[in-house]
Design a protein that fits this description.
By secondary structure, the chain is an alpha+beta fold. About 35% of the residues lie in helices and about 20% in strands. It contains 8 helices and 11 strands. Strands 1-6-7-4-3-2 form a 6-stranded antiparallel sheet, with helices on both faces. It has a 3-stranded mixed sheet with strand order 5-10-9. A two-stranded antiparallel sheet has the order 8-11. It is globular, with a radius of gyration of 20 Å. The chain starts with 6 loop residues before the first strand and ends in a 29-residue tail after the last helix.
Length: about 325
């Protein structure tokens, strides 16, 4: 699994320094913090192509000026020719994530703010060239975890009124994407954090922004526009089906009705909910095996909670 860079560390991007500790623009600052905290960090994901961990901001050195107690660190290797070319053209997945997060922020959609993007060499034998994204941790559980908990009575279970408010929050997120001319190719529920799910106004935070881009001109017109909307909604359904926790019909209808209301209120053409759902169902049926290669509920699943089965990885 890739580890964070420790040698020849270079700072590619850094957030506005306001609210960040002194030394945030010094690559040695980040190399020291990552080296001190990596081994004790909470593992969110460990895959051959990426490692994601949560590190305490006071791991090994104090960061008193930083408001968040934890940061998420994602590390990916830059070893292949393709990834090397992407690093030269600023199109690596982590750079695309940064730009996607900026676009979502401008559209009024919550996300985990990127803090720093670094490249350098690990101290493995042999050393590996890697890229490392440091970002804020969005507090809360994923939308998928709430869907998985709904029928099982675990701590992620929401009441009927809470589910209704979360459904409306999902509709607002989809509407803002649509209204601002954005496409998110991967808005699956494991990439969405529900902020304040038991409050009066929950929000949805997008934590994987690699697939966010501007809609192309033809994607904003007529049937192509409606198809873009249906694809977003289908992505919200396919993963829960594959993990054994499909959303209830009532919650699906709440999302569709709230979305139609928001579209009409802002003067957008709103397809009929029934027609839109038929388009979503067609996309779901046409999708390949919905079971994910890596179980997205592994980090949040409680003993005995069950859940879906991950499909075997493909070569």
């Amino acid at each position: 699994m890739p580890r964070p860079p420790q040698d020849r560390v270079r700072l590619v991007r850094v957030a506005d320094a306001s609210g960040l500790p002194r030394g945030v623009r010094d690559p040695a600052f980040w190399a020291g913090w990552l080296g001190d905290g990596w081994e004790g960090g909470e593992k969110l994901s460990e895959k051959p192509g990426a490692s994601v961990r949560v590190l305490a901001t006071d791991a090994g050195r104090t960061m008193p000026e930083f408001a968040m107690p934890e940061l998420v660190v994602k590390v990916e290797p830059i070893g292949s020719l393709r990834r090397t070319l992407q690093s030269l053209t600023h199109t690596t997945p982590l750079e695309r994530h940064w730009r996607g997060a900026d676009a979502l922020h401008q559209a009024g959609i919550r996300t985990a703010r990127p803090v720093a993007l670094l490249r350098g060499m690990t101290r493995d034998t042999p050393p590996r060239r890697v890229e490392c994204l440091v970002m804020e941790r969005a507090p809360g559980a994923t939308l998928l975890a709430h869907l998985a908990g709904a029928p099982r009575g675990d701590p992620h279970t929401l009441s009927r009124d809470e589910r209704a408010r979360v459904a409306r929050a999902v509709a607002r997120m989809v509407f803002r994407l649509h209204a601002r001319g954005l496409v998110n190719r991967d808005p699956k529920p494991s990439n969405l954090i529900v902020l304040d799910p038991r409050g009066a106004s929950p929000e949805i935070a997008v934590v994987d922004c690699v697939g966010v881009r501007r809609a192309r001109p033809w994607e904003r017109l007529g049937s192509a526009r409606d198809h873009r909307l249906a694809r977003t909604l289908a992505s919200l359904v396919i993963e829960p089906i594959g993990t054994g926790c499909p959303p209830a019909r009532t919650d699906r209808m709440r999302v569709l009705s709230e979305l139609a209301r928001l579209l009409r209120a802002e003067g957008f053409a709103a397809p009929r909910s029934r027609d839109l759902w038929r388009s979503v169902e067609a996309l779901v049926r046409a999708h390949a095996d919905p079971r994910p290669a890596h179980d997205p509920l592994a980090a949040s699943r409680l003993p005995g909670s069950g859940g879906g089965t991950a499909r075997p990885p493909t070569d």
